[in-house]
Specification:
Largest sheet: 6 strands, antiparallel
CATH topology: Thiol Ester Dehydrase, Chain A
Number of strands: 6
Helix content: 10-25%
Structural class: alpha+beta
Distance between the termini: 7 Å
CATH architecture: Roll
Length: 134
């Protein structure tokens, strides 16, 4: 099976950098979250509509590996591929500086789905994500 990747482009904003002039580590979590939300929107899944309907995908684990730092005004590519792992949906993220395609961060984010307050297998997402699962 061929892995399908979703990719989007961002630019580092100055306020995301710390006193060392590099992107603060916590911002990489924001980048991965925005990428997941935009990915779902590209498939017609609105995070806010899901919530209004009692469907809440929640992060249960995030594992980030920082490789090299982004700095202010860097343009970068944030990509993901997705897999089903038991009851969880697992997103594998890669963040690369666009100018030289250097990997800056790799992350694995595990998501569980709560429906009307109860933990589920997240079947709601299976149909929309079936062509994306690796």
């Amino acid at each position: 099976m061929i892995k399908k990747y979703y990719e989007t482009e961002f630019k580092v904003r100055d306020y995301e950098c710390d006193a060392q002039g590099i992107v603060n580590n916590a911002n990489y979590l924001h980048y991965t979250e925005i990428t997941r939300h935009e990915f779902l929107e590209s498939l017609g899944i609105s995070f806010m509509e899901c919530h209004k309907n009692g469907i809440d995908p929640v992060v249960v684990r995030a594992d980030l590996h920082y490789k090299t730092s982004l700095v202010g005004s860097d343009v970068f590519l944030s990509s993901l591929c997705v897999e089903r792992k038991g009851p969880k949906i697992v997103f594998h993220h890669t963040i690369k500086r666009k100018s030289d395609l250097t990997v800056c961060c790799k992350a694995t984010v595990e998501v569980a789905t709560i429906v009307n307050g109860k933990l589920t297998r997240g079947e709601f997402f299976d149909d929309k994500l079936k062509d994306w699962f690796v």
